[in-house]
Design goal:
This protein is of the alpha/beta class. The chain is built from 38 helices and 22 strands. The termini are far apart. The relative contact order is 0.07.
Length: about 950
């Protein structure tokens, strides 16, 4: 730590201001020791007698017009930065009072910790760096011109569904209440991106945001988001445009992956200020933000909005904490169940067919292999008795072509087809590995050669042919072929293809979050104004579950409990601290000193541009004092464990194979130091095996042949000391990237005929039927069309003639006896009309009468009402949604209903506590018209 305040300013604060583009030596930009005239010294901590009515601000940052824009109060690095808080505030207030200027922004710092205080808007918060002059100009413009968000117009052409408007209102109201972190939980397919874009549109129009960052975790999702912004906010300049690599600072909307943004904030060539963005949106915020990429959010000082489809009861505690929400209470939530049960539904429901093969259930052994296949194996020179695999080992230790072929055949038979009834509709095959995906692709090509290799295509993230216009993903989305996308992880989440009608789980899944995101690939409904010939209608989609995933999640609702992994650099430092402490306790001061030198060298290599390292400046500054290391007590070692060891999670560029070897050597030397001989022997055997796998055919490895051969002998290890250990790490560690692993774990490839062991429909969704709603409707409509040719009653209906009560009864009896068991009740469910009679359904099917769908009529009326009243707040939206469902359920409503339960849940006075009298009259008029 620096000594005086002057030294702190010169060594630290001046440099930090320079990084933000401020030239401390230029009085047109920065004034030091700025003289502030005051009438009285209220609130000052300095001795006011000495200053005689004057205050002196350490730094004043000037705008382009020469007026003060910010005050920076400095304290020496050994003191708490917060000691300058009240001084900085008083300086700002006095500058405003005496110069008649706008209230300057307030900063206070000790060079290690810096705080930003927008006095009129929010409490102080810690930041990692100063804003540029352009940042301050933008922040001042926003503060000066922003409008109230309470009644800000929401563009319903972008996001016009009631729950989308409620979600936007929840965030806008939160911003009005000075909140800065928000979490929206919305089921996959309910339009999270559109909701977010409509919210950004409102914030920009209201003057609350000028620069927005939309963060995603994959390139495909970046392209998808850019397309959405281009469609819905075409006039807002976006980054990146096609081919752009370097960051451009003149755009309004930025869409980037976590790695791209991390490289920008850590890099030296493309520096961005921590204050560059006004709003950051974190798409799919349950992933990617708990590892190195969380640094991106720590770096920027902006309003933060998290988007996730993960159900609230499954969301990790850390996600709620990150966005300052109570556990289980996001800013807004709209579930899959709410979406499919809405009238009309917002998402497509699904049915599940469970398919399992004999080999999956019973394994592959002499007992389950057919006699014909046993003969073939013998002719191939294989011992049938030696083939013995569990079903769970398929696509791991054993590959059986016959099992994959059976799955493909079953899919082609059971899948939902296109309008011609020949080819499957758009489908995603979820495979275990890339090799598995390629094998499935080969089977499709072999079984269905007439499609010339176009029916099914592998889409994996590391294939450059996937991306861009005309790429494989674009073909799958916008062309007739391919119909089947075979994927490993890439299409599991975030990809938006509305025409998907089949999902095939050709692998087991253990993460609940990931599983439901995979299911979400099929939940989107079609856009009626953009029909595609290969999918003209969709009211259900099919899931073929080949690995009993639904049963697994019934028994394990949260999935497998994965342990949080400790990164290799963090683990290595932890072992080094263990060794230092153990050596100290045993009086081995030379060994402890050796490891301390290595630890200090590791600390020096930490990425200084990382925000995690910058935020730990106070802790790291303590290590610059030699006395800290000269007397390394248990307490100080514990300090290193708790404060310094976690910082090594920022290490992302290293030779990790060499680091693993160093870790193993460190574990061995620690075991020897602790006299744990059995543990040391096991570790030694592993190290010797690694060394034996170094290929002497490589020149670099050949150069170390004497050491490699020596290190495989017992004599070497009997005499080895710390110098020998360090020599092994230094000379052989860098060679570990050339290792050739033993081939003992090689997979067994078989081509044995498999057969279906079990195939059954899973009753899922509101119908609990063995066929889909759409299929049932098709069967009824086909039946009636056929019966018209010979049934005199149907012929009279078609001709518009009057039907007697007896004829209607006879027709009902006949339809009930025919497959598929046509009843008035089932027709009311399928056509979603609880009032229509059987003959009305028949007339509707024959095209004579259009049935009025009461729920659709109610929903449309409420949607129109909401679009006409764009200033509704979230509580009012919630009340209207409840009223809509009440009318659909009861088909009537009285005035007194609106001041009783369930409406009193929203406000004790019911409608009177939510709307003003004029609005109440309008709502009652709407309700009475609908229920009439």
């Amino acid at each position: 730590m620096t000594g005086s305040e002057s030294e702190t300013r010169t060594a630290l604060i001046d440099q930090q201001l320079a990084l933000a583009g401020w030239n401390v030596a230029d009085p047109m930009q920065v004034i030091e020791e700025f003289d502030i005239l005051i009438n009285r010294p209220d609130g000052l901590s300095e001795n006011h007698v000495a200053y005689k009515g004057h205050q002196y601000s350490d730094y004043i940052l000037l705008g382009k017009d020469g007026k003060p824009m910010a005050v920076v109060e400095a304290k020496r690095s050994s003191r708490d930065a917060a000691l300058g808080r009240e001084q900085a505030k008083q300086y700002c207030l006095n500058i405003q009072a005496h110069l008649g200027s706008e209230l300057p922004f307030c900063f206070y710092t000790n060079g290690l910790e810096t705080y930003f205080w927008d006095l009129e808007h929010s409490p102080p918060r810690r930041i990692v760096g100063f804003p540029t002059r352009d940042d301050l100009e933008r922040l001042a413009y926003i503060r000066r011109n922003r409008k109230s968000l309470t009644h800000e117009f929401i563009n319903t052409a972008i996001a016009g569904r009631d729950y989308q408007i409620r979600a936007i209102r929840s965030v806008l109201e939160g911003i009005e209440q000075k909140k800065r972190d928000f979490l929206l939980v919305m089921a996959t397919g309910t339009g999270k991106t559109r909701t977010c874009i409509a919210m950004i549109d409102a914030l920009m129009r209201a003057g609350h945001a000028e620069k927005v960052l939309f963060l995603v975790d994959r390139i495909a999702l970046r392209e998808q988001a850019l397309t959405a912004f281009k469609e819905h906010m075409p006039n807002e300049p976006r980054w990146p445009n096609v081919g752009e690599k370097l960051i451009a600072k003149d755009r309004r909307v930025y869409v980037a992956t976590y790695p791209t943004m991390l490289n920008i904030i850590r890099g030296e060539t493309q520096h961005l200020s921590p204050h560059f963005f006004d709003l950051i949106v974190v798409d799919e915020s349950h992933r990617s933000i708990y590892n190195t990429f969380g640094e991106v959010l720590d770096y920027f000082d902006a309003i933060t909005l998290g988007l996730t489809a993960t159900p609230t009861d499954i969301i990790d505690h850390n996600t709620f904490k990150l966005f300052n929400c109570e556990d289980g209470l996001p800013t807004f939530a709209f579930t899959f169940e709410q979406a499919i049960n809405n009238v009309p539904p917002y998402l497509c429901n699904f049915q599940v067919m469970k398919i399992q093969t004999k080999f999956q259930m019973q394994g592959i052994s002499k007992r389950t292999i057919s006699l014909d296949d046993q003969k073939k194996l013998i002719l191939q020179g294989k011992e049938v008795e030696e083939i013995n695999f569990e079903g769970t080992q398929l696509e791991k230790q054993v590959i059986n072509k016959g099992t994959n072929t059976l799955i493909v055949r079953e899919f082609m038979e059971e899948s939902i087809k296109d309008a011609n009834g020949v080819l499957p509709g758009k489908t995603i095959f979820f495979c275990a590995t890339k090799a598995h995906a390629r094998r499935i692709e080969e089977i499709f090509d072999k079984l269905y050669p007439q499609y010339r290799g176009e029916l099914a295509k592998v889409l994996v993230s590391d294939d450059p042919r996937v991306y861009g216009k005309g790429g494989l993903l674009d073909q799958f989305t916008n062309n007739d072929m391919p119909r089947i996308a075979i994927s490993v992880d890439m299409l599991d989440t975030g990809i938006d293809v509305r025409e998907i009608v089949n999902l095939v789980f050709a692998k087991p899944v253990y993460s609940y979050t990931k599983f439901w995101q995979m299911v979400g690939r099929g939940t989107r409904l079609l856009e009626t104004n953009k029909p595609k010939p290969w999918c003209l209608e969709k009211d259900v989609f099919l899931i073929l579950d080949c690995w009993d995933n639904f049963e697994y999640f019934k028994l394990n609702p949260r999935g497998k409990n994965f342990k949080q992994q400790i990164s290799l650099p963090v683990r290595l430092v932890g072992l080094r601290l263990d060794k230092i402490e153990t050596a100290g306790d045993k009086g081995q001061t030379e060994i402890a000193a050796r490891e301390v030198r290595k630890l200090r060298a590791q600390i020096d290599l930490l990425p200084q541009s990382s925000v995690v390292i910058k935020e730990a400046a106070v802790s790291l500054a303590m290590l610059n004092q030699e006395r800290f290391w000269n007397d390394l007590t248990h307490q100080r070692v514990e300090f290193l464990r708790s404060k310094i060891q976690p910082l090594f999670r920022t290490v992302s560029e290293a030779d990790f194979k060499a680091m693993r070897f160093e870790r193993d050597m460190l574990e061995y030397s620690l075991a020897m130091l602790r006299e744990e001989k059995m543990q040391a022997e096991v570790l030694k055997e592993g190290i010797v095996e690694q060394i034996s796998e170094l290929p002497l055919s490589v020149g670099f490895v050949k150069h170390e042949e004497p050491l490699i051969r020596a290190a495989q002998s017992n004599v070497f290890w009997a005499k080895a000391d710390e110098n020998a250990f360090d020599n092994l790490v230094a000379k052989l560690g860098p060679l570990m990237k050339f290792r050739e692993r033993r081939r003992g774990g090689e997979q067994t490839h078989l081509d044995l005929a498999d057969e279906v062991h079990r195939k059954e429909w899973v009753e899922f969704g509101p119908q609990h039927e063995a066929v889909s709603v759409s299929r049932y409707r098709e069967m009824v409509e086909s039946l009636i069309a056929d019966m018209v040719a010979y049934n005199p009653v149907l012929q009279k209906v078609q001709a518009g003639e009057t039907i007697s009560a007896q004829e209607a009864s006879d027709l009902a009896e006949l339809l009930h006896q025919e497959h598929p068991h046509v009843t008035e009740d089932l027709l009311r469910q399928v056509y979603k009309n609880r009032k229509a009679r059987l003959l009305q359904f028949v007339r509707h099917i024959l095209g004579i009468e259009v049935l009025k769908n009461f729920p659709d009529e109610v929903s449309a009326a409420f949607d129109q009402f909401i679009r006409a009243h764009t200033a509704l707040n979230s509580r009012q939206m919630e009340f209207l949604n409840l009223l809509k469902n009440f009318i659909i359920e009861r088909e009537k409503v009285d005035r007194k209903d609106l001041i009783n339960a369930p409406f009193t849940v929203i406000h004790p006075q019911g409608i009177r506590g939510v709307f003003d009298p004029a609005d109440i009259d309008e709502i009652i008029q709407l309700a009475e018209q609908l229920a009439a």
